[in-house]
């Protein structure tokens, strides 16, 4: 079977399995005031501290932030994979109007795979070394589609492997994970996440082990499948270039909090939180001057066992004021669907109310 024939067959299946068109544009996932803590012998680690966001059908939302900011923890909370001593202690997670936190074990099993799937960050530890790649793909599909035969499951597994750029799939289906390179194992994980055509895909650093060329192909594949199925995607990454390429909107996390949220263009061209500005300044840009130096964010991340009373970024912020150290700022609306939690923006809002203007200038 040629690559074009595989793509054609897969597109025909997507046409029959695609979600209702009237779902497009509505809310798929809604997270409100989510709090997640880890209760360790040293004390309570407040990994996620009251975040809220929503993902619509057919929308790609990026979550960016440095290591330890809580990106993966909130994703594990959504899919019900939070391990002890972690616990959701507050807030709500709603998927298509259903309360995810109230799901029974059987409901959660059905929820994973059929409705939501996750591509994990480390393919080296996510694939079972004693089973062939084909066996693991087939079992993943049969676990969520009881009616499919083993032959049809194997055929679809081979189609998915070809779609994510793996050649000679009949041979590869019989091989074990250790016979694949790191990048190829990552592609197997992506195929496993997409094989049941979920309504929501959570991708945790899915292109980390891939070279630039394959990374671009995988992003194109995910965008193509997302458009055909109205699938929502939560894309967790450190790579701001990937965010610019694939995402519709962005949430910037720092120390367990969403410090800024907005459309991708607003985040890149009109960042309003000092942490977002710092991330952009530390990223190489193709349109920068040839001798322009990157500016790192000074200081160290927050100790989550003893977080500051006020804004978590205040100890590292060059614009920090006394109130920043004492009180967490409220969210300020910067523009349409663009908001930021920063006392500087509160000041800007008060000044605009005094002058009667509603414009917000870039703070990059």
From TrEMBL:
The keyword Transport applies. Its main location: membrane. Gene3D superfamilies: P-loop containing nucleotide triphosphate hydrolases (3.40.50.300). SUPFAM superfamilies: P-loop containing nucleoside triphosphate hydrolases (SSF52540). Belongs to the ABC transporter superfamily. Keywords: ATP-binding, Cell membrane, Membrane, Nucleotide-binding, Transport. This is Oligopeptide transport ATP-binding protein OppD. InterPro entries: AAA+_ATPase (IPR003593), ABC_Ni/Peptide_Import (IPR050388), ABC_transporter-like_ATP-bd (IPR003439), ABC_transporter-like_CS (IPR017871), Oligopep_ABC_C (IPR013563), P-loop_NTPase (IPR027417). Residues 1-21 are annotated as: Disordered. GO terms for molecular function: ATP binding; ATP hydrolysis activity. GO terms for cellular component: plasma membrane. It holds the Pfam family ABC_tran.
């Amino acid at each position: 079977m040629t690559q074009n024939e595989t793509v054609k067959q897969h597109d025909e299946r997507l046409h029959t399995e695609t979600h209702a068109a009237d779902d497009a544009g509505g809310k798929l996932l809604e997270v409100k005031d989510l709090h997640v803590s880890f209760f360790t012998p040293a004390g309570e680690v407040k990994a996620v501290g009251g975040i809220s966001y929503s993902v619509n059908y057919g929308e790609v939302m990026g979550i960016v932030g440095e290591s330890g900011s809580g990106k993966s923890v909130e994703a594990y909370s959504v899919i019900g994979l939070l391990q002890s001593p972690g616990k959701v202690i507050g807030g709500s997670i709603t998927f298509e109007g259903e309360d995810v936190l109230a799901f029974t074990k059987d409901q959660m099993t059905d929820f994973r795979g059929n409705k939501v799937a996750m591509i994990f960050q480390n393919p080296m530890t996510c694939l079972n070394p004693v089973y062939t790649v084909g066996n693991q793909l087939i079992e993943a599909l049969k676990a969520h589609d009881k009616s499919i035969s083993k032959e049809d499951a194997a055929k679809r597994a081979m189609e998915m492997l070809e779609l994510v750029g793996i050649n000679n799939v009949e041979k590869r289906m019989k091989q074990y994970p250790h016979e694949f390179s790191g990048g190829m194992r990552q592609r197997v994980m992506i195929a496993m996440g997409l094989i049941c055509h979920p309504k929501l895909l959570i991708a945790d650093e899915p292109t980390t082990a891939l070279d630039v060329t394959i990374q671009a192909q995988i992003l194109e594949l995910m965008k193509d499948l997302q458009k055909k199925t109205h699938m929502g995607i939560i894309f967790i990454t450190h790579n701001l270039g990937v965010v610019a390429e694939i995402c519709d909107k962005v949430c910037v996390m720092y120390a367990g909090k969403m410090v800024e949220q907005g459309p991708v263009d607003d985040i890149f061209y009109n960042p309003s939180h000092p942490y977002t500005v710092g991330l952009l300044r530390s990223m190489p840009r193709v349109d920068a001057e040839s001798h322009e130096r990157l500016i790192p964010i000074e200081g160290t991340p927050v100790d989550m066992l003893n977080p500051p009373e006020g804004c978590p970024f205040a100890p590292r912020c060059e614009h920090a004021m006394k109130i920043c150290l004492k009180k967490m700022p409220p969210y300020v609306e910067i523009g349409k669907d663009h908001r930021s939690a920063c006392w500087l923006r509160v000041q800007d809002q008060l000044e605009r109310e005094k002058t009667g203007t509603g414009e917000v200038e870039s703070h990059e």
